[in-house]
Write a structure and sequence with these properties.
- The protein is of the alpha+beta class.
- Helices cover 41% and strands 33% of the residues.
- It is built from three helices and five strands.
Length: 155
């Protein structure tokens, strides 16, 4: 009986080492997956910052749309730095034409705005294109300078 006992002396050690190896591999895979998830969240945060900065360009255009004939013939570009870690936006408008609806003349613009988060060339740049109609007849939408609405917005 003693002889059988001595033959099985290393079986528990080998089983414990195999279990330790399996648990170590599972731990390494969990660390790798969590590191990957952290990178995804960081990229999404940078993208969101660039997107909202690009929307700032649209908001600035909506605040002061060009309705004079001189402004319509010269598409303008604005570029501003936001006090948010060096993030910037720039926008450009192209006058598409006019549209009459119910006796009100609307000037139609295609506005392109680009938001950029610095040091992130792949994730940190977002471009938004929007069609904006502006009441240019001196009506109730801002005394002839207010936007009526956006016909479409695209990423």
């Amino acid at each position: 009986m003693k002889r059988g006992y001595y033959r099985e002396r290393g079986a528990a050690l080998i089983a414990a080492l195999v279990m330790l190896l399996i648990l170590t591999m599972l731990g390494i895979m969990a660390l790798d997956a969590s590191r990957h998830e952290v990178n995804i969240v960081a990229n999404q945060r940078i993208y969101n910052a660039a997107f909202y900065i690009a929307e700032s360009g649209l908001d600035e255009f909506k605040a002061i749309p060009p309705v004079s004939s001189e402004a319509l013939n010269n598409p303008f570009t604005g570029s501003k730095s936001i006090d948010n870690g060096g993030n910037t936006y720039r926008y450009m408008s192209d006058w598409i034409g006019t549209r009459n609806d119910g006796g009100i003349t609307y000037k139609v613009f295609k506005v392109t705005s680009e938001g950029t988060a610095p040091n992130f060339p792949n994730v940190g740049k977002v471009t938004i294109e929007s069609i904006i109609e502006v009441d240019s007849s001196g009506g109730s939408a801002g005394g002839g300078r207010g936007p009526v609405g956006e016909a479409g917005q695209y990423n």
